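ENTRY TYPE: paired fold submission
RECORD: A
CONTENT: sequence, then structure tokens
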Amino acid sequence: MQKLSRDEVVEAIKENLWPHYAFQKEIREKGPKVLVKGEGALLWDIEGKEYIDGHSILWVVNVGHGRKEIVDAMAEQANKIAYASLFGGYSNEPAGILAQKLAKITPGDLWVSFLVSGGSEAVEVAIKIARQYQTLKGFPQRFKVIARKESYHGATLGALSCTGLRVYRTSFEPLLPGFVHVPPPYCYRCEYNLEYPSCNLQCVKAIEEAILWEGPKTVAAVIAEPIMSAAGALVPPPEYFPRLRQICDQYGVLLIIDEVLNGFGRTGKFFAIERYGVIPDIMTMAKAMSGGYAPIGAAISRKEISDAFQDYMMMHGITFGGHPVACVAALKNIEILERENLPERAEKMGEELKKLLEPLKKHRMVGDIRGIGLHFAIEYVMDKGTKARIPSDQRVAARVEELCWSKGLYLCRASVDKTYIAPPLIVTYEQLQRIVEILDQSIAEVEREIFA
């Protein structure tokens, strides 16, 4: 790599690098946040300042930074063969071993994996599998996909058409046809003004109503995150997914479970859907699949679905899907998760994090704190009694994030009104205490400005 000075690196980022979900003007005026080193749950920027990684850098680095055994395994594979495509019947050894491993660790009879290089691609593949499967079974009119408002499934056009967050969609409309959105299990802001459990899970019933309204013979699949992440760690009631599974079975609709943000230990289980005892027809995964050490993702389907393709080609391909170095990274990452019992650790540390976060409800603008495992969110409001939303021009969550950064805490993906807390699964209790301490201070400062 070309060696540049600190100032040259900053200038290159400001002038030549297009940021993701960020304002170019702000980066050019304030300067970029440049990370150069990571170890465990700690990060260092280009100035040498230390931070706690409070978000696993986008729900990704579950096993922590600086895992030399993953890096060594990748280097060993790269020295053998760095790249081999899965096109046209060719394959490579790590891809086969990884696919077998995924069949063993995923729920039920999920069996055959389509390997890709990221979460949006995994969702795209899942949609294509569902649609082509329905055609192969004699139902070519089944093309619609039912998703949920407030959901995030990715940024490519198909995944974005599933995504139920308006702010991500408006610049690219019209999106793909055939995607229908229904209310989510958002108990804090129930669209029906009901309360659990007397609501009788109207949000699940809404999915059945949508299937009936669209016509069961036109619906290919329902897609859902077990814990809705971008919406602020929405944990549905225990009956939600069992009932959804029944609805999908009743109408011949496939159930796609999106584990891209939930999977690989984040919620206290290897996969969050395990909490509900439900087996999806197709499941997507990415992000923490390799712990962030290489880009990789997958859509895994039940054997019954893959068997339908025996005499037909799946009309899809990804150049870097099944990349041998990335597959080795994923295998070593999974080995660490299993060996160190990190999902179980996430469950226990999550209970401690919940206790630490609870006192933050003292703040005037903290409306709700929710989550499970090491997957939490804080939702800010203008008024606790009415739950009035924070105006978008206030950018409250972004302001909290900036203050946290100045105090040595890395948080990412700030929305208008939610702060996400999702540290690596190896985080210590002392680091959790420091995360909450910095959050407490930062929320207080922003609150004073908002309500001055």
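RECORD: B
CONTENT: sequence, then structure tokens
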Amino acid sequence: MILNNDKALKVAEFLLQIKAVKLQPNNPFVWASGWNSPIYCDNRITLSFPSIRTFIRQAYSEAVLDYFGKPDVIAGVATGGIAQGALVAQELGLPFIYIRSSAKEHGMGNQIEGYYEKGQKVVVIEDLISTGGSSIKAIEALKDAGMDVKGLIAIFTYGFNVAEENFTKANCPYVTLTNYDFMLEEALKKDYITQKDVSSLREWKNQPEIWKK
């Protein structure tokens, strides 16, 4: 689900402008999974640009209230969602916690850092959704801790079917500020890519595991 079409195009424009998203259909990146990819996304770069950081913080906060209502707590997913989540919590005047990818092997052995109570309503902040795997692990950790997970919000999603399936299985609605389709629309409009590139870029989204193998 997208927050707003105009905002989705604006976020896509910002991500392209600051090279948080790079599109290289003719010189693909290689992901850790071994997939060839025409796109690389690093939303942490948005934190280095105050006006863009503010726009994204406010868009996140609007999405929290519009889709899930005001929760008791905001939770960030390590690592990309920590800074974004803290900014959203500050904007909304809410407590903040974050979820590690796994429990610490020393000290208190926490996976969830910060103060929370069972039964509290929480909205999860993520920076990027690919397959949804890391997001789902965070959601499960919060549920196991007795928290009421209302939903998740991310800046960007590639729009893979497997992500949709994973969130459905986890019974967790999610919203993104922009997505791959809006990114291609904006990239074509601003001449980051050509019309010829679009078909290859769409093929990748449909079958990323075999694209250019």
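NOTES ON RECORD B: The mean pLDDT is 94. Helices lie at 5-17, 50-68, 80-92, 133-144, 161-169, 180-189, 195-206.
STATUS: closed
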